[in-house]
Amino acid sequence: MPSVSLATTLHDSTGWTLQPLSETAKLLDECYESRLTVVTGGTMPEVLEALRETGWIIVEPRSRVGVQHITDSRRRVLRASLEQGSDFIHLVDMDRALHWASSYPEELRRVAAAIPGHDFLVLGRTRRAMKTHPKNQTETEALANKVFSLILGRDMDITAASRGISRDAAETILRYSRGRFFDSDSEWPIILHCNGHELGYMEVEGLEWETQLKRSEVTLPDGRKVDPKEYYEASPESWVYRLMLAHGIARAAYRTHRALSR
User: Fold this and answer.
1) Nearest to residue 84, comparing CAs of 29, 9, 34?
2) Residue 92 CA neighbour count, 13 Å, CB half
3) Is 0.90 topped by the overall pTM?
4) What's the pLDDT tens digit per position in 46-104?
5) How many CB atoms are located within 10 Å of the residue 2 CB?
6) pLDDT class for 220, splitting at 50, 70, 90?
């Protein structure tokens, strides 16, 4: 049987992962041969200890904090998974992985088992799962997904950034990837498409909005506490931030395709 590793990125300065790490360890051990994570320099020492105690391999050195380093962290954990000897890799951010394992364990089992059947498996969200996210995220990500889908000629939700990756596909990604921020959402599948790799696609429930795992409420400057979804949808700053991310993902798709299709 081919080995499948779980590869994640993590920033936890508050300890929100401590309980779900313990609760999901058994299931994740059953689904994956190994589990690796790149953690930020701002992650609590208690979280590092919990990761080691629950079977995670921490990829050193620790990453700098900030969205501009996300794609580099994903490349690092991808490379570390290959060095670990993985035949296939399930890449997904830690908050999504823990929410998925807690809320949809049987679906996660099926996904882990399905990954070896694909060279590169894009995992998108069902319509229901997509609707759980705040509108500042869904409406801006829809634009990035549209640009990608027009280039590929096939509708896909790529902005949940979860995918199954074969060893061959991972090596191709590491050969060509140069992106920053969240460019890897679109850059990696475009790289593979342009190099003749087949892209599979599956929509899942477990990629629903995971942020409430980390934050159940937002405290406003006047002391009022509000629901995070309500806050993000009403915040101009949150819309601008999501527009910036979506623009970067769309631009990476277009530029990568143009560069590799010449």
Assistant:
1) 34
2) 29
3) yes
4) 999 999 999 999 999 889 888 889 999 999 999 999 999 999 999 999 999 999 999 99
5) 12
6) low
Tell whether 151 is covered by a domain.
no
Cα 45 to Cα 12, 96, 252: the distances in Å are: 10, 21, 35
- β partners of residue 40: 63
Read off the CATH number of the domain in which 62 is found.
Answer: 3.90.550.10
Q: What's the domain count of the chain?
A: 1
Q: Which domain holds residue 11?
A: 4-134+156-216
Residue 181 falls inside a structural domain: yes
The pairs formed by 110-115 with CB atoms below 8 angstroms and a separation of 24 or more are 111/164, 111/202, 111/204, 111/206, 112/4, 112/6, 112/31, 112/32, 114/164, 114/202, 115/4, 115/88, 115/90, 115/164
Q: What are 72's two structure tokens?
A: 């580099």
Return the closest-CA partner of residue 10 out of 43, 39, 52.
Answer: 39
The phi, psi pair for 15, rounded to 5°, reads 90, 20
| pLDDT tens, residue by residue, 9-58 | 999 999 999 999 999 999 999 999 999 999 999 999 999 999 999 999 99
Burial (CB count within 10 angstroms: exposed 0-12, middle 13-18, buried 19+), residue 207 = buried
